[in-house]
């Protein structure tokens, strides 16, 4: 966290890495991101907001009897997008 108690982009990216590797559950990722998304004004930069909103709700079921609304491939795609956006 930075000095203002907001998650850094490194911390956010690490959550995606851990999730994609299966070392962090979707429920854990969702709960971690929810506290930042739900608190008004805590996140100020667009990239952090974008990434946290991808993690928040990552545990939503697909509704067709199994799996998640956002599959593992999409999670890996979001991680790649985050890394590309950070590199700009």
List the helices and strands and how they pair.
Blueprint: H1 9-20, H2 26-38, H3 46-55, H4 72-87
Helix pairs in contact: 1-3, 1-4, 2-3
- How many helical stretches? 4
Question: Major beta sheet, specifics?
Answer: none
Radius of gyration: 13 Å
Oligomer: single chain
What is the terminal separation in angstroms? Answer: 22 Å
Contiguous runs where pLDDT drops below 50 for at least 5 residues = none
Morphology call: globular
Indicate the proportion of strand residues.
Answer: under 5%
N-to-C order of helices and strands:
HHHH
Helix percent reads 55-70%
Number of beta-strand segments: 0
Which structural class best describes the helix and strand composition? mainly alpha
Mean pLDDT over all positions: 90
Q: Would you give an account of this structure?
A:
The longest helix has 16 residues, at 72-87. This protein has helices at residues 9-20, 26-38, 46-55, 72-87. The chain is mainly α.
Observed structural traits:
88 residues; 4 helices
What is the structure about, briefly put?
The protein has 88 residues and is mainly alpha-helical.
